[in-house]
Design a protein that fits this description.
Strand content: 15-25%
Helix content: 40-55%
Shape: globular
CATH architecture: 3-Layer(aba) Sandwich
Bound molecules: S-adenosylmethionine
Structural class: alpha/beta
CATH superfamily: Vaccinia Virus protein VP39
Order of helices and strands: HHHEHEHEEHHEHHHEEHEHHE
């Protein structure tokens, strides 16, 4: 069937994203609440942020905050201004309302904008938090989005981002469609439903008829690392989210019954999630990276023999 490339203009892709997220604000909030395995994902993300977000007065950029699931965690960790930039004005309003009378809200600027064209000066940000597969949603523009983030983060600054991996996404997709009794239909024609393409190249075009609701680029840990290095970051930590407890919901449900068992499950997840074999399982992976002093140059010519 070949590699289906159906990249639409970036402005069309972003409009589709904005309209979709405008219409599913509550669903976005619910993504990390309710079932214990969803809470597990949220807690692992918050703990990863806690491990990597510098405590201090530096400026933090939160790209794609959505309804603000992690905004208050960030405000609790940093002491400086928070720039919350999202394509959707609706979700920003929701984030703003959620902070309500919290005095920390004065530190937040809610800005409608695109990550690919950040309205910020070079090196003006200490830390960028880019959670919710924002780089993947940029499709073929992912490298451009990462370069733009690298432009605004000062050398030595931090990026915390997450990525969806082809293996984990296929497992999750199969689980979702099996609940809707569609799995056999898909397994009869996996190529039609882009399974092979996603596993080979990671690229998913926008093809709703084939259950592909977004243009999306999935990343392996290697391809994410390469994209980050090309943009000017050095990866210092990577961790799968919920390698143990995401897919088998009973594990999180059982652990959630006691604070001590919950804490121990989180610690086990953090250990297993950092093992190379586990990185592409679970609910995608998190990365913490440092902005290098200089972007690594690609060699212009092939090295010649001495
Ligand atoms: C999946 S939600 C993630 C929300 C939150 N960060 C979280 O992890 O729960 C994605 C959000 O990012 C925004 N978004 C996606 N791509 C973006 C881009 N290129 N620039 C700015 N915002 C973007 C969407 O509008 C949406 O609100």
């Amino acid at each position: 069937m070949g590699d289906l490339r159906q990249s639409v203009p970036a402005s069309v892709r972003r409009r589709h994203l904005r309209r979709t997220f405008d219409a599913r604000i509550d669903r976005e909030w619910g993504r990390y609440a309710g079932e214990p395995r969803r809470v597990l994902v949220r807690h692992l993300r918050e703990r990863f942020l806690r491990q990597h977000l510098p405590y201090g007065p530096g400026v933090v950029l939160e790209l794609g905050p959505g309804p603000g699931r992690f905004s208050s965690t960030i405000l609790g960790l940093s002491r400086g201004p928070l720039l919350a930039i999202d394509l959707s004005q609706e979700v920003l309003r929701r984030g703003q309302r959620r902070l309500g009378g919290d005095p920390r809200r004065r530190r937040v600027s809610w800005i409608q904008g695109a990550g690919e064209h950040l309205p910020l000066q070079d090196r003006s940000v200490g830390t960028a938090v880019v959670l919710g597969n924002i780089v993947c949603f940029a499709g073929t523009d992912g490298p451009r989005l990462l370069r733009e983030i690298a432009r605004v983060v000062r050398p030595g600054g931090t990026l915390v981002a997450d990525f969806a991996s082809p293996a984990a996404a296929t497992q999750e997709f199969f689980e979702v469609v099996s609940r809707r009794r569609q799995l056999r239909r898909i397994l009869r024609r996996p190529e039609f439903y882009l399974i092979h393409q996603i596993l080979d190249s990671g690229y998913q075009p926008y093809l709703p008829r084939r259950l592909a609701a977004w243009e999306f680029q999935f990343y392996t840990v290697d391809s994410a690392r390469q994209a980050l290095v090309r943009a000017g970051f050095r990866v210092r930590d990577a961790m799968a989210v919920g390698a143990v407890g995401w897919t088998v919901g009973r594990i999180a449900a059982s652990a959630r019954r006691e604070p001590r068992t919950w804490e121990n499950l989180l610690r086990i997840e953090e250990r297993i999630g950092r093992r190379p074999g586990a990185l592409e399982t679970g609910h995608g992976f998190l990365v913490a990276a440092t902005r290098a002093a200089r972007r690594r140059r690609e060699p212009r010519t092939l090295p010649t023999k001495p």
